[in-house]
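Obj.: predict assembly geometry.
Materials: sequence records (below).
Method: joint structure prediction, all chains together.
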Amino acid sequence: MQQDRPEESEAIVEPERFNQARAAQSMAILEDYVEMIGDLIGEFGEARITDIAQRMGVTHPTATKAVSRLKREGLAISRPYRGVFLTDEGAAMAELVRARHRTVVDLLVAIGVPAETAELDAEGMEHHVSDVTLKAFEAFLERATSVSDTIEEAPRKG
Amino acid sequence: MQQDRPEESEAIVEPERFNQARAAQSMAILEDYVEMIGDLIGEFGEARITDIAQRMGVTHPTATKAVSRLKREGLAISRPYRGVFLTDEGAAMAELVRARHRTVVDLLVAIGVPAETAELDAEGMEHHVSDVTLKAFEAFLERATSVSDTIEEAPRKG
DNA sequence: CCGCAAGTGAAGCCTTGGCAACACTTCTGT
DNA sequence: ACAGAAGTGTTGCCAAGGCTTCACTTGCGG
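Observations (raw structure tokens):
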């Protein structure tokens, strides 16, 4: 019953994608928090633990712990009983994450996914979208947009 | 500096997508193991802990623990020092996961993502693709396929 | 048939990301 | 000015998913 085991090369390549997926996962929450803190600072001028916790749907100790990790990673700073702020690095990450999120949502919508579903699914998917894939998404959207312009604007003008 | 806080409705809806993403994440590893076990059974007639561990890129105790969880969830069965097998439920899940994986990879490729990158990114993304989105992917692929048929076959026939 | 290598299991540890409970600050209204 | 409410921090707990180490079965070769 036992056939030959896969070649060495296969055996080594296979697990890599799982390792990569796991690595992406460990960044995912950090990215979510950074983006959220960026949003809050944009809206209120500061990000408070309670607000972060509420928006992330977790309790405040969980948010505190996450912020600790962000500080350890050099993405955020904070002083006791004061708000949380992003470092330059953190702000840059927030911007990238936000842009990627938009692109993923736009792509899903362009593919034909309902906007609300796109928003929900993008939240989980976005963290696994590599730079290469992101570029492909952008290129596709550009093509799709010009096509829909042709279709939608022609009658309007006519 | 402090503006008004968001409306109640926003405050409640916001966290939902994170909760959903987290729930998907907790299923992700289960799905990966189930699919992998299905693959191994298909190839060798049985799935052994060592092989599962090797393919997943983890040590064997980790695989053992994962299998324990699968058994607890009713997706797999096993006896000490014997292989691991899927229940009907587990086999059904494996099939769904496999099909979804293929669809996601195909979609990425259709969008213009290099095959190898598509494979890597799909591994992480697939677990966050809802049924609605999957349906949209399938519909898009059907359209894209017929279009490329038109483009590719026309010159061939001419 | 018996011993040793490979495979498996079990225990214990780490980190992460949740939680609740409790302690302490800050802020606010009287 | 101060008491209570709201916000924040701390501590300790849990489960999951990693790991290493060690013990035990299995199964195969001599």
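Conclusions so far: Chain A touches chain B through 51 residues (CB under 8 Å).
To do: check interface contacts against the pulldown list.
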